[in-house]
Model the fold of this input.
Amino acid sequence: MPASRKSGKVFYTLRPSREGLPPFSDIKLPGGTIIRRVDEAIHRKALSNAAKALKEGLDR
Done:
C-alpha cells in the first residue's frame, strides 16, 4: 500500500428505510474514519442473499 494512502476505519450503522434517500451515505471524519449509514431494508436483503448463497454452497 502506498505511504500516501491513509488507513482509516469504516464503521457501519443502520438507519430506517426512507423514500428518497440513497441506500448508503458516508460521513468522513478527520483522521480517515468513515461512518457508512446503510438502509436497514438493503442490509436485511443482503444478509438474506448471503445466507442463501452459503446454504447452496454447503448443500453441494
About this structure: Helices lie at 40-59. The two ends are 37 Å apart (CA to CA). The beta strands are 10-15, 24-28, 34-39.
